[in-house]
């Protein structure tokens, strides 16, 4: 499904932004701007159902990567027999992304209001906020929570290991239940049986922020921006060769070039843009300039915003070397529970390295393609699928460079300093 | 988000439980091939009636109980 074009040009929508950011860090500022949580508007069984209905009508889709319709997930969790639990996913393990940490810093109470409303909608009494351990964020959230008196939920903060896959939803459930931050085999999925065996709503923190706004302003207001199938606004982290790398609130349907312009535009000629972070897709530039970005898969490569990390790669950098380095990182981040992930990802990373550094022939390329095909879809979680999507897109986007490399020439880009970010602090254990 | 349990039976592997013993391939080559690391690649399409009994035998023979036959689809390839 390709995304429907914007009904309004981006410059017309600009005054309507920001919706999420800039709502005030302090509880008093937040209440001043937004008032209390509109729980009374959605009182009783009828009210809960109406809240779910409104989120569904708004067409909100998850901002944690997969873009799943949030209203449908709320309805599934609410239909369980036991009292559900809500997990707010603020881990943001994606190294190229900063949007969730930025949101939790600049508008924590919008997220917390959204979590209270989501809990109300599904009938949950407890909300667990999941953030990566370390840094000042967990303590800051503790302090903000202490300010909030009278919330009708029990709050808890879970400090999650700093590992790429520990923020996957079954891994969060596993960690909360037993202190082990590795994904578990599904079914049952968290929405069926998660924390303490209860139906568990796992929502990205940005998704919860949007719920807080939809509950106040309604689905029609939400749909004033964005596309038919991906309405609203969305946070992106724009990095690489742009004038002002930062987190921006954009509108689905904007073209890649317009999104880069939001960050001050490219600072040098670009070779490609990585859309959707390290589970994402490389889009060659300048051809990709006019591709619209949304949570709908677009074009033959199936490009989506995913978790919203966008990275501009200069023309004289080597996309293959960058991909090889990041694939190695993703391989190291495997939970090493599933054979195809544990053995396949390092093998793919090795092949990519050989390709990037010009020590192989066409046979290596064939083996690489075969391995990618072999590993995809065979893990308990989607880690191998994301990593192989990323690797596959590099082989397509950098096809010409690949020929050069396979002919024994190394490009000049491999001598440039690596650009795609890796986390500074990583945990090695799972507890 | 629910998948009806009256779906046709399928063979599926829990990749976390599987440690590549390879017994299943011996018993059900019609549905199982091996990758280069010795892990099974399982064809999860609906099982025809004449394979269901064989599939159940493979399920019972797996030393780590990593296989299952049922209609509930865990992962789509
Ligand atoms: C390996 C892996 C890592 C993930 N990391 C995150 C993450 O850091 N933050 C997040 O919100 N979702 C992450 N997800 C997606 C979650 O599993 C889940 O789908 C999401 O939190 C649901 O929220 P949403 O519907 O609001 O997007 C990850 C998924 C995978 C497979
Ligand atoms: S697919 Fe990889 S990361 Fe996911 S559970 Fe299996 S081994 Fe762990």
From TrEMBL, chain A:
SUPFAM superfamilies per the UniProt record, alphabetical: Nqo1 FMN-binding domain-like (SSF142019), Nqo1 middle domain-like (SSF142984), Nqo1C-terminal domain-like (SSF140490)
The keyword Transmembrane belongs to this UniProt entry's keyword annotation: no
Domain Soluble ligand binding intervals: 236-269
One Pfam family matching this protein: Complex1_51K
Source superkingdom: Bacteria
Keywords of the record: 4Fe-4S, Flavoprotein, FMN, Iron, Iron-sulfur, Metal-binding
InterPro entries: ComplexI_51kDa_subunit, Nuo51_FMN-bd, Nuo51_FMN-bd_sf, Nuop51_4Fe4S-bd, Nuop51_4Fe4S-bd_sf, Soluble_ligand-bd
Cofactor(s) demanded: FMN; [4Fe-4S] cluster
Residue intervals of the NADH-ubiquinone oxidoreductase 51kDa subunit FMN-binding domain: 55-211
Annotated ranges, domain NADH-ubiquinone oxidoreductase 51kDa subunit iron-sulphur binding: 323-405
Record-stated family: Belongs to the complex I 51 kDa subunit family.
The protein's name in its UniProt record: NADH dehydrogenase
Native source organism of the sequence: Phytohabitans aurantiacus
Taxon lineage: Bacteria, Bacillati, Actinomycetota, Actinomycetes, Micromonosporales
UniProtKB/TrEMBL annotation, chain B:
Highest rank taxon of the organism: Bacteria
Upper taxonomic lineage: Bacteria, Bacillati, Actinomycetota, Actinomycetes, Micromonosporales
Name this polypeptide is given: Ferredoxin
Pfam family, one: Fer4_15
């Amino acid at each position: 499904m390709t995304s429907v074009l914007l009904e309004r040009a981006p410059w017309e929508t600009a005054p309507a932004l920001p919706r999420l950011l800039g709502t005030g860090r302090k509880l008093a500022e937040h209440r001043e701007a937004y008032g209390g949580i509109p729980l009374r508007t959605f009182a009783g069984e009828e009210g809960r159902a109406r809240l779910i209905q409104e989120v569904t009508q708004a067409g909100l889709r998850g901002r944690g990567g997969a873009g799943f319709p949030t209203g449908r997930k709320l309805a599934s969790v609410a239909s369980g027999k036991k009292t559900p639990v809500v997990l707010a996913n603020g881990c943001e393990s994606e190294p190229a992304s900063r949007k969730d940490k930025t949101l939790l810093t600049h508008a924590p109470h919008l997220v917390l209001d959204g979590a209270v409303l989501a809990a109300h909608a599904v009938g949950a009494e407890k909300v667990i906020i999941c953030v990566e351990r370390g840094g000042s964020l967990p303590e800051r959230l503790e302090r903000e929570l202490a300010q909030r008196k009278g919330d009708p939920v029990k709050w808890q903060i879970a400090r999650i290991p700093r590992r790429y896959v520990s923020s996957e939803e079954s891994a969060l459930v596993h960690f909360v239940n037993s202190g082990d931050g590795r994904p578990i085999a599904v079914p049952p999925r968290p929405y069926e049986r998660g924390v303490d065996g209860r139906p568990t709503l796992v929502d990205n923190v940005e998704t919860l922020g949007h719920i807080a706004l939809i509950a106040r302003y309604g689905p029609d207001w939400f749909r004033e921006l964005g596309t038919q199938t991906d309405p609203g606004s969305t946070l992106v982290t724009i990095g690489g060769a742009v004038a002002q790398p930062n987190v921006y609130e954009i509108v689905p349907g904007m073209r890649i070039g317009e999104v880069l312009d939001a960050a001050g535009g490219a600072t040098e000629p670009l070779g490609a843009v990585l859309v959707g972070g390290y589970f994402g897709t490389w889009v060659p530039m300048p051809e990709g300039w006019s591709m619209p970005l949304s949570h709908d898969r677009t074009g033959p490569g199936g490009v989506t915003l995913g978790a919203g990390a966008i990275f501009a790669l200069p023309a004289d950098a080597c996309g293959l070397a960058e991909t090889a380095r990041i694939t190695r990182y993703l391989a190291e981040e495997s939970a090493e529970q599933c054979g195809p992930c544990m053995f396949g990802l390092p093998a793919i990373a090795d092949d990519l390295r050989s390709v990037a550094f010009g020590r192989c022939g066409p046979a290596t390329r064939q083996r690489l393609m075969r391995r990618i095909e072999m590993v995809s879809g065979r893990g308990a979680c989607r880690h191998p699928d994301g990593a192989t999507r990323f690797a596959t897109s590099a082989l397509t986007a950098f096809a010409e460079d690949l020929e050069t490399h396979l002919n024994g020439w190394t490009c000049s880009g491999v001598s440039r300093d690596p650009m795609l970010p890796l986390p500074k602090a990583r945990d090695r254990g799972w507890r | 988000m629910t998948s009806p349990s009256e779906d046709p039976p399928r063979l599926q592997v829990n990749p976390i439980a599987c440690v590549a013993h390879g017994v299943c391939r011996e018993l059900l080559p019609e549905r199982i091939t091996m990758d280069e690391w010795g892990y099974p690649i399982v064809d999860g399409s609906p099982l025809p009636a004449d394979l269901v009994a064989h599939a159940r035998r493979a399920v019972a023979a797996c030393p780590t109980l990593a296989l299952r036959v049922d209609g509930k689809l865990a992962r789509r390839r």
